[in-house]
Amino acid sequence: MRTQEISFPDRKTFCVFPDERSELAQAISELQLKDNYPVIVLIGGDIDEREAVITRQAIQTVARIAEDANAVVICGGTDIGIMATV
User: Fold this and answer.
1) Contact 1/30 with Cβ under 8 angstroms?
2) C-alpha distances in Å from residue 48, one per residue of 52, 57, 58, 69
3) Measured CA angle at 12 (ends 22, 80), to 5 deg
4) Is the CB of residue 61 less than 8 Å from the CB of residue 28?
């Protein structure tokens, strides 16, 4: 399982990337969440080039909402989609 700290202009965020479904419990533990948080789960796949602009706008909107709500975001973690924007 890989962990990484991602820097934003005003703060850093810790990310966990489990390799197997069996690592999910450990991944949640690694996040060291101490309170209740809203959770946003993103499920998707490749971004179709014809829809890339609207998809990126949607991703930016979800990211802003997550930040405003202090939410935990769970996604596939590929190099496309929401993870490509951080």
Assistant:
1) yes
2) 6, 14, 14, 29
3) 55
4) no
Using CA atoms, how far apart are residues 86 and 76, in angstroms rounded to an integer?
A: 13
In angstroms, the CA 44 to CA 77 distance is 10
The reported pTM is: 0.56
Residue 81, by phi and psi: left (phi above 0), alpha (psi -120 to 50) or beta? left
Separation between Cα atoms, residue 1 and residue 44, nearest integer Å: 21
Look at residue 45 and give its three-state secondary structure: coil
Per-residue pLDDT of the chain (86 residues; tens, 9 = 90+): 888 888 878 878 888 888 888 888 888 888 888 788 888 887 766 667 777 788 778 888 988 898 899 888 887 665 555 555 54
